[in-house]
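Write out structure tokens for Phosphomannomutase.
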Amino acid sequence: MENHKKTILLFDVDGTLTASRQIITAEIKEFISSVCEKFSCGLVGGSDCVKITEQMGGQESLDRMGFIYVFSENGLVACKRGKTIGLMNLVEHMGEEKLQALINFALGYFASLKLPAKRGTFVEFRKGMINFCPVGRSCSQAERQQFSDLDQKEHIREEMVKHLREKFDADGWEFSIGGQISIDAFPKGWDKRYCLQYLEKDFDTIHFFGDRVLKGGNDHEIYSDPRTIGHQVMNPADTKKQVLELLSENGVTL
């Protein structure tokens, strides 16, 4: 049996605890709250803290669930019990010249795409990464789904990532596909594994649950890292099922 005090369960957000960019359901919220009473738990998402908090139902809801750690932007903004313990700065790390070269290329690439719809906010600048979105982050839920369906058929984001890697690998950039509609760009090494530095000294066992664990997905690196036990999930219901199985294996009931 695992030592519960030395074990942490770490969850991705989109596709793992919530549907993509949707708010957590009452069922999953109640379930996670009960899990947090038995084990240390944390969140790690690619979105910024505002979006993650929104998806958890707001700050009060997030606090009630009992997560000890919340890692936004892949852990580049790290919080423990509501207090910031780590914060990286993309501008200082990469410099303006590399940033603008990447952004200019992406905007030019978007201009060449013919899509069913294009809306606003194609580039979202965050503290530790840049989020590129071919359809635009201000798209409606229907437009989001429309793009996602097309992307699954035509691999629009996969093809863009291929071009980005060919052009900007030497500049130290890495790219991953996340959620339904976007691509994350960040310095090499600034993927979700970044958050593990805050956990590996205090926990002997780190379970990670995520949906985009295949190569190219934004959960792949942390899922396959030797410091974690990775669990590939399909959706929030599957996350609940797999967590219950893990608890049962350890003789824990909720």
